[in-house]
């Protein structure tokens, strides 16, 4: 048993004999956790910081949940970035590692897991929660409480994964966790169990989110908003949600089977027991390659909105954009075998999946041409969001070209597991996903918070980040051609790798400096940022820009009726024609106080938080095979679900103080 590192353990070791320490320690851990949560809830109820509990920890408002996802994503970006800098520092000088090989394996694993599961996914869900209901003219998501459950399952899954650094040891088998590296005989200890349980818990939350937004988009659109009138970001959310529903179950099954191998003595993937490790590889990449598009399609949606807004033009080729995005979603499920061309599937199988991989370049190329033609002839504004969008195009073209090279089976045999693959992977995910998410953050930040981020600081961060990106990963293509393989913690002299690794490390620190400037920009703008007085600082085209910033809790007092694509832009054009106003003028939507008196809002509740906490306790017990702790967590899960099942009072009338505040605001506007 790995003892818990807190003062209770030392007290127990002093007061109790060795034969009763283990159950006593387990009981002390559980009691301390329960007491800590009870004290927190009780103190915040009567403390001036009580709003933190009652407005955030219990909220079911999709906009606040979006903010919490965004904060978590930025924290995880910092956390995963530190891992990246540690790896690059370790590789800067040959034969002089800063960390040991075992520590390097742990950092390598946690970097990949955090960036993909605990940074990219919550960043995407932050944007979904912030604007998808607003863009389709809805007052909320389809299942507000399940939305909160999704967040807290993600949050406690991420917490469980990061606890590994403090208690028990971190996972060290890589972010893919292939067997036999995960077999208990070769990898004892709780590290891999942390990986498995954290991803199972957060994966359940992710699947629920996919279902929630799929139903939201299909069922809660405003009157007149047909599928072919939806903004492209909504289309990206619809396709991403469908991908999630079919991609995450295979991953969950693979992780659960691996966990049973490690804790229950099964032999699904253990070679010595007749298991099939290749079955795990297939299940993992049935998730893994669609996951690439799960994190890239939302970026495509962001770019479509940004290009149209800052070019002051309608999106070129809307129908072809919809078809190409849907084609990408479908083709994403037919390419997973290209991740293991070198494992002996045979020439026929390799040829089929090589061709299917190349086919995805066609709809992707369609989108790039559409974005270029959207800018062509437009009045382009070079905002920070637009700079990230424009930088994406050459980056993704290069990444796609290297992807075609890797889809060619003979070339893949030479380049597989080399640093060429590392560079390609990061070109696609950073140059695609991170550029897109940062563009979306800058674009919708005024809508989320009511003030804009400072453009000058944002542009400085962009140029540092974009230049640091190429300085980091450009040399890695050359390292791959030179024979350097990934997952190396050090290397000998005389191979020609030293100078390229030094340059790559310098680039990584430039990207780190860009992130620090972004954080400073956020903190500076919180105090000095320009407040959004109109709700439409960018002269936007879609419905979210018709609302004040930040958006009221009820979103729309009266649901809008949509008659065309770019619904808000059409309203503004009609207003300008009728009034002769200038091109930046917009009507002020008139909302009467009586419009909101009859609204019913979802009631805040604590059960999503306690459900996530119960999953955390259950997962922690399974990690250490402390079945008493796991049983307590499972009982908490069951009790919370029973409470939620019989709690039918989900919606309450608009609070009187909110109505009075709205009446006062309306009176000032009319005066």
How would you sum up the major sheet? 2 strands, antiparallel
Strand order of the largest sheet: 1-2
CATH level-two architecture of the largest domain: Up-down Bundle
- Our measurement of the CA-to-CA distance between the termini, rounded to an integer number of angstroms, reads 70 Å
Number of helices: 22
Strand content: under 5%
The radius of gyration over CA amounts to 26 Å
The number of strands is 2
Low-confidence stretches: 1-28, 663-671
Number of domains: 2
CATH class membership of the largest domain: Mainly Alpha
Instruction: Kindly name the structural category.
Output: mainly alpha
Taken from the alpha-carbon principal axes, the silhouette is globular
Helical content band: 55-70%
Give me the CATH superfamily of the largest domain.
Answer: Cytochrome c oxidase-like, subunit I domain
What is the H-and-E element order?
Answer: HHHHHHHHHHHHHHHHHHHEHHEH
Write the CATH fold name of the largest domain: Cytochrome C Oxidase, Chain A
Q: Estimate the mean pLDDT confidence.
A: 87
Structure in words:
There is one protein chain. Helix 6 packs antiparallel against helix 7 and helix 7 runs antiparallel to helix 20. The N and C termini lie far apart (70 Å). It is built from 22 helices and two strands. Helix content is 68%, strand content 1%. The protein has two domains: 532 residues, Cytochrome C Oxidase, Chain A (Up-down Bundle); 41 residues. The protein has 671 residues and is mostly helical. Strands 1-2 form a two-stranded antiparallel sheet.
């Amino acid at each position: 048993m790995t003892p818990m590192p807190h003062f209770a353990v030392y007290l127990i070791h002093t007061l109790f004999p060795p034969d009763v320490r283990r159950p006593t320690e387990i009981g002390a851990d559980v009691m301390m956790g329960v007491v800590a949560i009870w004290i927190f809830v009780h103190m915040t109820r009567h403390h001036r910081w009580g709003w933190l509990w009652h407005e955030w920890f219990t909220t079911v408002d999709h906009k606040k949940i979006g903010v919490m996802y965004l904060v978590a994503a930025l924290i995880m970006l910092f956390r995963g970035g530190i891992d990246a800098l540690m790896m690059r520092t370790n590789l800067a000088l040959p034969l002089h590692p800063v960390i040991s090989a075992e520590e390097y394996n742990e950092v390598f694993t946690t970097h990949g897991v955090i960036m993909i599961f605990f940074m990219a996914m919550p960043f995407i869900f932050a944007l979904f929660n912030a604007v998808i209901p607003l863009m389709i003219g809805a007052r909320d998501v389809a299942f507000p409480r399940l939305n909160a459950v999704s967040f807290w399952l993600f949050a406690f899954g991420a917490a469980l994964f990061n606890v590994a650094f403090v208690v028990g040891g971190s996972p060290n088998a890589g972010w893919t966790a292939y067997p036999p590296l995960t077999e208990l005989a070769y990898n004892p200890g709780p590290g891999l169990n942390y990986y498995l349980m954290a991803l199972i818990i957060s994966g359940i939350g992710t699947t629920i989110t996919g279902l929630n937004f799929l139903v939201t988009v299909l069922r809660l659109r405003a009157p007149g908003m047909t599928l072919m009138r939806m903004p492209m970001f909504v289309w990206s959310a619809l396709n991403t949600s469908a991908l999630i529903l079919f991609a995450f179950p295979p991953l969950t099954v693979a992780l659960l089977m691996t966990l049973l191998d490690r804790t229950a003595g099964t032999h699904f993937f253990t070679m010595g027991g007749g298991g099939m490790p290749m079955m795990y590889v297939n299940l993992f990449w049935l998730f893994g390659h669609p996951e690439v598009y799960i994190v890239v399609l939302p970026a495509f949606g962001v770019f479509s909105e940004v290009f149209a807004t800052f070019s002051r033009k309608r999106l070129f080729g809307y129908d072809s954009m919809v078809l190409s995005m849907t084609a990408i979603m479908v083709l994403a499920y037919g390419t997973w075998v290209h991740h293991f061309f070198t494992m002996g599937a045979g020439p026929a199988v390799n040829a089929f999946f090589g061709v299917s991989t190349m086919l995805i370049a066609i709809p992707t190329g369609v989108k790039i041409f559409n974005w270029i033609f959207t800018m062509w002839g437009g009045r382009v504004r070079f905002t920070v969001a637009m700079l990230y969008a424009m930088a994406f195009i050459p980056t993704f073209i290069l990444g796609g070209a290297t992807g075609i090279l890797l889809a060619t089976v003979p070339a893949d045999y030479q380049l597989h597991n080399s640093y060429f693959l590392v560079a390609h992977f990061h070109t696609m995910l950073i140059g695609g996903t991170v550029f897109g998410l940062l563009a979306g953050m800058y674009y919708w930040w005024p809508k989320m918070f009511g003030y804009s981020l400072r453009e000058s600081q944002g542009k400085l961060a962009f140029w540092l980040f974009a230049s640091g990106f190429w300085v980091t990963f450009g040399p890695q293509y050359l390292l791959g051609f030179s024979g350097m393989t990934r997952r190396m913690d050090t290397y000998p002299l005389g191979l020609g790798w030293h100078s390229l690794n030094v340059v790559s490390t310098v680039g990584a620190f430039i990207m780190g400096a860009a992130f620090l400037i972004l954080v400073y920009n956020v903190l500076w703008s919180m105090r000095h940022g320009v407040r959004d007085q109109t709700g439409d600082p960018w002269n936007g085209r879609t419905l979210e820009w018709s609302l004040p910033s930040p958006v009221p809790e009820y979103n729309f007092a009266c649901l809008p009726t949509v008659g065309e694509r770019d619904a808000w832009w059409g309203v503004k054009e009609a207003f300008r024609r009728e009034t002769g106003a200038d091109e930046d003028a917009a009507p002020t939507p008139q909302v009467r106080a009586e419009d909101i008196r009859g609204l019913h809002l979802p009631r805040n509740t604590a059960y999503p938080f306690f459900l996530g906490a119960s999953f955390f306790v259950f997962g922690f017990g399974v990690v250490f095979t402390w079945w008493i702790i796991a049983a307590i967590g499972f009982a908490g899960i069951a009790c919370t679900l029973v409470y939620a099942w019989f709690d039918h009072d989900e919606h309450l009338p608009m609070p009187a103080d909110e109505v009075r505040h709205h009446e006062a605001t309306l009176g000032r506007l009319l005066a």
